[in-house]
């Protein structure tokens, strides 16, 4: 069987995986319609129980009823697993087994993801082919086209780099790679074992004489060649709406669905890049930004300002030649840069629209959202912006730091593509940031979006408001402003500032009202959601008592909806849902 898959290791693996498609299709065809199987199994079980009722001591009928029950349970389990995968949700462990929830979720998900029309060229397109052409053309222009090949050298910025790769670290980065069979495949198998897929995969491989590992197909040979086949780096673009009611193609965010083999390879590289990047916590940025915005509504403080910069299509517009020059800037060895280049620059795209795949074009720029390497590479890209601004600050004697930032040299807070710049509210300081952003845009392709970027000015600097807004071209922002999903305020957190949190909880709980859940299931859902919201908001703020009471009031109303809560609160002191007086906010 191995003789049929001769060639390079990567080619052999891809051919073997393609051969498994026929195996899985045959198994799927053999199982047939899972919903129909459940219906037939239930009918057979009902007939067997009716016959058993006539002669309860017949051992043959008892055995028949037990077999029918096992068949029914197996068919129900298969249908439930299928619905869980289609609905992309996991049911409560030990909770209700009602599959109506999964059916409703699948139907709602299908309606939500359907894109029947689109606004393009001044008109609303309703023809499906026109909609497809509009999406494919937009993303081909955004991600494809002609690749820029500029001779770029950024090593003049090394004096302002926080760390440069040493020779010893370079040897670690380029040391021999472990095989996929021993390192990554075991991790992948653990993650998908609970879905019941790994056992089926291994059984099918053994039954048909295939082997994904070994000397011929192991990933040691794949990673040693570092020449990716096109099918390994082919990517599907899943469209996620960025706004509540998307109207244009630009309102959708393309999320890349990469090949599993490609992800396994890139995660090995990620493990090597990660130690060289400084660890950062999202709560640190929020707390520091919150501290800097304190007193913005006071007249007696020094004039200061902050820029919330929105980068247009941040991940999708990074130029590849700039990315490679950035890796050279930080001293990554040429071999490692070649590996990164092969993974990033050999990608191709197809757009997944309304359940079907359309178009096929090669990439020319951008970091894919969905690629395991993209967040780490984007951190390096944003580090170049910091170095450019720091160079300009040291060369410009007129720049004035933000209040309380001179001693620590703080002027930038960035987490992924969320960027905040702080300085004194004067034209020389703000103009320096403007020049730095323009230089960075010319090198990297990441441009600030004036329509979404904001300039927040303290109350003591309102005399310079018009000049600064005209200089930048940004919109004027007012506190509270959202940063990393949380509001940044200049004073104590109030009930009004927490309205986004309360609205999100109301929306989530309101979606559960029409679902036929038991009382215990609703209580479990509420407690899980409360804990989830508490983890993020509680990491940055102390929630006001009024917010806690409002959340408990909203949550306590849900279990009593309909007839599910009738008679459950009789004789109860705490009420239908006890949250122990807000103790959940302090756990």
UniProtKB/TrEMBL annotation:
Q: SUPFAM superfamilies from the entry?
A: DNA/RNA polymerases
Q: Which residues form the Reverse transcriptase domain?
A: 221-488
Signal peptide coordinates: none
Highest taxon of the source?
Eukaryota
Q: Which PANTHER family match?
A: OS12G0587133 PROTEIN, REVERSE TRANSCRIPTASE ZINC-BINDING DOMAIN-CONTAINING PROTEIN-RELATED-RELATED
Name of this chain's protein: LINE-1 retrotransposable element O protein
What is the scientific name of the source organism? Answer: Sesamum latifolium
**Source taxonomy:** Eukaryota, Viridiplantae, Streptophyta, Embryophyta, Tracheophyta
């Amino acid at each position: 069987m191995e003789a049929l898959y001769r060639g390079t290791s990567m080619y052999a693996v891809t051919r073997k995986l393609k051969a498994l498609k026929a195996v899985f299709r045959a198994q799927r065809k053999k199982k047939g319609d899972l919903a129909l199987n459940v219906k037939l199994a239930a009918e057979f079980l009902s007939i067997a129980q009716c016959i058993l009722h006539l002669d309860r001591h017949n051992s043959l009928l008892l055995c028949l009823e037990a077999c029918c029950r096992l068949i029914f349970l197996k068919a129900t389990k298969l249908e439930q697993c299928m619905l869980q995968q289609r609905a992309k949700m996991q049911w409560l462990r030990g909770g209700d087994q009602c599959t109506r929830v999964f059916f409703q979720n699948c139907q709602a998900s299908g309606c939500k993801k359907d894109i029947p029309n689109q606004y393009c060229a001044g008109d609303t397109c309703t023809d499906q082919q026109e909609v497809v052409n509009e999406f494919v053309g937009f993303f081909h222009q955004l991600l494809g086209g002609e690749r820029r090949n500029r001779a770029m050298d950024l090593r003049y910025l090394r004096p302002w780099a926080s760390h440069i790769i040493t020779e010893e670290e370079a040897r670690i980065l380029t040391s021999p790679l472990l095989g996929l069979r021993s390192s990554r495949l075991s991790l992948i198998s653990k993650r998908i074992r609970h879905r019941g897929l790994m056992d089926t995969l291994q059984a099918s491989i053994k039954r048909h004489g295939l082997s994904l590992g070994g000397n011929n197909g192991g990933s040691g040979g794949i990673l040693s060649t570092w020449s990716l086949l096109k099918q390994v780096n082919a990517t599907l673009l899943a469209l996620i709406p960025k706004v509540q009611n998307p109207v244009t193609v630009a309102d959708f965010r393309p999320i890349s669905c990469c090949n599993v083999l490609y992800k396994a390879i890139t995660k090995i590289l990620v493990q090597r890049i990660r130690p060289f990047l400084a660890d950062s916590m999202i709560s640190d940025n929020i707390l520091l930004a919150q501290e800097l915005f304190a007193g913005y509504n006071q007249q007696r403080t020094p004039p200061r300002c902050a820029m919330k910069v929105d980068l247009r299509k941040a991940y999708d517009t990074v130029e590849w030649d700039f990315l490679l020059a950035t890796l050279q800037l930080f001293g990554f060895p040429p071999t490692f840069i070649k590996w990164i280049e092969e993974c990033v620059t050999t990608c191709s795209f197809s757009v997944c629209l309304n359940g079907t795949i359309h178009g096929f074009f090669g990439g020319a720029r951008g970091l894919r959202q969905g690629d395991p390497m993209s967040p780490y590479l984007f951190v390096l890209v944003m580090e170049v912006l910091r170095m450019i601004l720091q160079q300009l600050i040291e060369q410009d004697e007129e720049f004035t730091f933000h209040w309380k930032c001179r001693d620590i040299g703080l002027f930038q807070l960035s987490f992924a593509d969320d960027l905040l710049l702080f300085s004194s509210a004067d034209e020389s300081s703000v103009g320096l940031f403007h020049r730095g952003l323009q230089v960075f845009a010319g090198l990297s392709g990441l441009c600030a979006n004036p329509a979404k970027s904001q300039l927040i000015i303290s109350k003591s600097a309102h005399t310079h408001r018009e000049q600064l807004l005209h200089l930048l071209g940004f919109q004027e922002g007012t506190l509270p402003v959202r940063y990393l999903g949380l509001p940044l305020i200049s004073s104590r957190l109030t009930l009004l500032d927490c309205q986004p949190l309360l609205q999100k909880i109301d929306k989530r709980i309101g979606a559960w009202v029409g679902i036929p859940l038991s009382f215990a299931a609703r209580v479990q859902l509420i407690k899980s959601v409360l804990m989830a919201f508490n983890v993020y908001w509680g990491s940055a703020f102390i929630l006001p008592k009024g917010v806690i009471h409002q959340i408990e009031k909203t949550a306590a109303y849900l279990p009593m909806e309909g007839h599910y809560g009738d008679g459950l609160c009789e004789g109860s002191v705490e009420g239908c849902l006890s949250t122990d007086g807000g103790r959940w906010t302090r756990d």
